Amino acid sequence: MGRNLGYGGASPRVPGSVVIDLGRKMNKVLNIDGENASCMVEPGVSYFKLYEEIQKTGLKLWIDTPDLGGGSVLGNAIDRGVGYTPYGDHFANHCGMEIVLPDGSLLRTGMGALPGKDGADNPTWESFQHAYGPAVDGIFSQSNFGIVTKMGFWLMPETGHQSYMITFPRDNDFEQIVEIIRPLAQRGILGNIPQLRHAIQELAVTGKPRTTWYNGPGHFPRDVIREGVKQLPVGDVSWIFYGTQYGDTASISSQLSLIKSAFAAIPGSKFLLPSDLPPDHYIHSRVQVCSGVPVLRELDWLNWKPNAAHLFFSPIVPTRGSSARVIHDIITRLHAKYDFDVFPTLCVAGREMHYIANIVYDRSSEDEKRRARELMREMIDEAAREGFGEYRTHLLFADQVAGTYSWGGGALRRFNETLKDALDPNGILAPGRSGIWPKGYRGKGWELVGEKAKGCVTARM
Ligand SMILES: Cc1cc2nc3c(=O)[nH]c(=O)nc-3n(C[C@H](O)[C@H](O)[C@H](O)COP(=O)(O)OP(=O)(O)OC[C@H]3O[C@@H](n4cnc5c(N)ncnc54)[C@H](O)[C@@H]3O)c2cc1C
């Protein structure tokens, strides 16, 4: 659907390419299976559409949506996007694909490769992810090896849910918060992938411009954040943890008592339920997202600046307080160097966390765009030196990010190139996507690791 906002939208990497708009007409929900709790969709099915189609059936099934519900269920999963119910790893919860390969032939993966009775689709296509032999689905995610035209997904049976937030008073509580999350997540006590946000996000998600609080030069000062949040219902806090628990009332209450007592180790932490907060507070939007209802509220923080656009910097970091501190310091220091406000959102799992830094810039300002690009490039390199790599990136930075995955003299890149040349010898599909260039392009100046590359005189964003 081309709504990969912050990660490159619908743009092709090579000028003159033909963009295939699968969102407009291939927009059917092909199957909703109430017994199997699964569905099969075409690329143009948005989270809103899938949600509405399921509502029409009356089946008690949830979808899993990212923070913005306007994108494609299939496109998001192919880019290995995330959501916030227990089914939040979208690619992990897909089951079965149909793909058009660069030579025009069709491939079905998983059990779909085995024909069903009398020419029907295989009855377990949406039930079991693998066929016999190598598991190939993964090579069609974040790649340019084929066009996915159908994809199956598991749906979560409706259940009880309780969202909550826990606030922490000091910036330096950060490491301890991460240390407390790790065992709770590994032991399966946390219900979903929770988000940890800095207090500045509380100001931004009100949808008010930054000038409401600050008109001065430079990036948003820490004491102005403090004064701003003091006026909000959360009060003078530094970090905010948004979580949701699932199940029946008794299990939710026993999970919550474990969670509360674990975080009580941090002096001054406060536990709040949605009912403790006014109806316009952002937590009510999280309640919806975390129970599979698509919304658009998250876009409000783009009112921060006039003509705002944004880039996401999203490294994968171990769930350890010390590592969290290293990446947070890199991001904070470099945002200050390039004069941008820092918006940290951490999606914290038991063993790793996605640190999502949102760079909000004024797209009418060439100077801001240049600084945003330079900031991204420097963060990618510094993070990589610590062993932290991006899970996903804007196409402007694809070559640089792919280059950081350099173990074994670039063994992974060479392997991807071998696959590309075998499947797409003429290099017709999305050359350069995810830093994978077909042989006809390699070494001819197409790779974009700075401001200039062939066919891309000024990097566009
Ligand atoms: C405020 C805000 C919050 C966001 N929150 C989240 C979040 O919580 N989680 C998250 O994951 N994202 C988030 N995003 C990023 C983005 O908006 C979503 O991921 C969105 O769902 C992606 O849009 P799309 O599905 O239309 O992507 P598309 O642009 O359609 O697809 C993404 C990429 O996948 C490839 N692709 C798409 N379809 C196919 C196909 N059929 N075959 C082969 N390749 C294909 C293309 O290369 C394309 O560039 C957020 C963005 C913003 C602005």
From TrEMBL:
InterPro entries: Cytok_DH_C_sf, FAD-bd_oxidored_4_C, FAD-bd_PCMH, FAD-bd_PCMH-like_sf, FAD-bd_PCMH_sub1, FAD-bd_PCMH_sub2, FAD-linked_Oxase-like_C, Oxid_FAD_bind_N. Residues 1-158 form the FAD-binding PCMH-type domain. It holds the Pfam family FAD-oxidase_C. One of its GO terms (molecular function) is D-lactate dehydrogenase (cytochrome) activity. Keywords: FAD, Flavoprotein, Oxidoreductase. GO terms for biological process: lactate catabolic process. GO terms for cellular component: mitochondrion. The keyword Chloroplast does not apply. The keyword Oxidoreductase applies. Signal peptide: none annotated. Its cofactor is FAD. PANTHER family: ARYL-ALCOHOL OXIDASE VANILLYL-ALCOHOL OXIDASE (AFU_ORTHOLOGUE AFUA_3G09500)-RELATED, D-LACTATE DEHYDROGENASE. This is Vanillyl alcohol oxidase. It comes from Hyaloscypha variabilis (strain UAMH 11265 / GT02V1 / F).
